[in-house]
Amino acid sequence: MFLIDADFRSDTVTRPSAQMLAAMQAAPVGDDVLGDDPTVKALEANAAERFGMEAGLFCPSGTMTNQIAINVHCRPGDEVICSSLAHIYNYEGGGVAFNSGVQVRTGGDAYGRIFPEDIHRLVQPDMDVHAAPSRLVVVENTANKGGGTSLGLPLLHELHAAAKSHGLAYHLDGARIFNAIVREGDRTEDYSFFDSISICLSKGLAAPIGSVLLGNKDFIGQAKRIRKRFGGGMRQAGYLAAAGLYALENNIKRLVEDHEKAAQIDQWLSQVDYVVERKPCETNMVLFRINAIGGAQALHTHLASLGIRIIAMDREWLRIVTHQDITSAHMHALKNGLQSFQT
Ligand SMILES: Cc1ncc(COP(=O)(O)O)c(C=O)c1O
After folding, report:
1. Ligand 1 centroid – CA 141 distance (Å)
2. Which atom of ligand 1 has the smallest separation from the CA of 12?
3. CA–CA dist 208, 205 (Å, integer)
4. Nearest CA to ligand 1 atom 4
5. Would you state the CATH architecture of domain 18-250?
6. CATH topology classification for 6-13+254-339
7. 311-312 sheet: strands from edge to edge
8. CA of 331 relative to ligand 1 center, distance in Å
């Protein structure tokens, strides 16, 4: 029997399109560690200009851009304030401690948002020698473990004001910032009030690799040294940067299609009785909880037997993500798979 291969685990699973591969192959390159890869420079300048920031730094991953930002903003013993669901706290291998000797203080809601009150409550007084000094606020937009939540510019501005009222730096983990921008109808330059921004090219934008860290010239100058220290200096990286440039120029608007597909899946899930809770579906992710303890694995196994891959986040919660490579046949198979599951 022909088994479909429908991969809904993440938007990171996409393969570069023929046009993207052609752009990569045609890229002029140099040695970027020596500072002479023209395509890397073009990508860094393009991303920085879009977001109204002075400079950019091309890195292999969003983990690295976040970890570099934390390393530049903080000193060992400092504290970072973020959501309890934040990627930097849950999914970066303890990098904040390992790479920067920093600890994390968390707050916020079940959707990956934090609020100005959280900052005012969590900030540690600089004068108190018992406390680890707060140095940095990190927000994630969209919030992955929150369900692809879009925080919205008004809240991000309020958080900025709260961070600055305590003299804290303000970093955006924008792994999926373009999903938020497309949903809200924002402009990229609306985000220029951050001290630093990490954007990912290898999520919904469908490049095979790459993230760009954005900030002012001094910040990016320091970040460049840390990138080298972390082993992230790349040589003929222009081939990879070309994929990122192609993604920025061609793959932002189409994110709307991913959001529509996610909304469709969310609707199907609202109609099956084994789903007892769904996080609000705002962008390209659907996070849902199923009634039976251990049921997440059972649904995961049922779908896998039909050639459909999703992620079981724990014993009850599952995640479905839409992206460029999801076809209508994949959607059809998923609908049938969800409807044929029996607890
Ligand atoms: C919100 C968020 N930040 C950062 C990252 C890290 O990106 P990478 O996998 O490129 O290290 C991810 C990865 O999925 C993410 O979801």
Report:
1. 11
2. 14
3. 9
4. 62
5. 3-Layer(aba) Sandwich (3.40)
6. Aspartate Aminotransferase, domain 1 (3.90.1150)
7. 275-278, 285-290, 317-321, 311-312
8. 25
Q: How many CB atoms lie within 10 A of CB 98?
A: 11
Q: What is the pLDDT of residues 273-294, one digit of tens each?
A: 999 999 999 999 999 999 877 7
In contact, 214 and 46? CB cutoff 8 Å: no
Comma-separated ranges of CATH 3.90.1150.10 domains in the chain: 6-13+254-339
62 Cα: distance to centroid of ligand 1 (angstroms): 5
pLDDT for 287 equals: 98
Q: What is the pLDDT of residue 292?
A: 77
Q: Which of 142, 202, 203, 319 to mutate to test the pocket of ligand 1 (most atoms within 8 A of CB)?
A: 203
pLDDT at residue number 343: 79
Residue spans in the chain of domains classed CATH 3.40.640.10: 18-250
Whole-prediction pTM: 0.97
- Closest ligand 1 atom to Cα of 61: 10
Pocket test for ligand 1, best of 63, 114, 151, 198 (most atoms within 8 A of CB): 63
66-105 pLDDT per residue, tens = 999 999 999 999 999 999 999 999 999 999 999 999 999 9
What's the CA-to-centroid distance between 145 and ligand 1, angstroms?
A: 11
Ranges 107-111, 125-129, 144-148, 338-342: which has the least confidence = 125-129
- Which residues lie closer than 8 Å to 15 by C-beta, 6 or more apart? 208, 325
What percent of the chain has pLDDT above 90?
Answer: 97
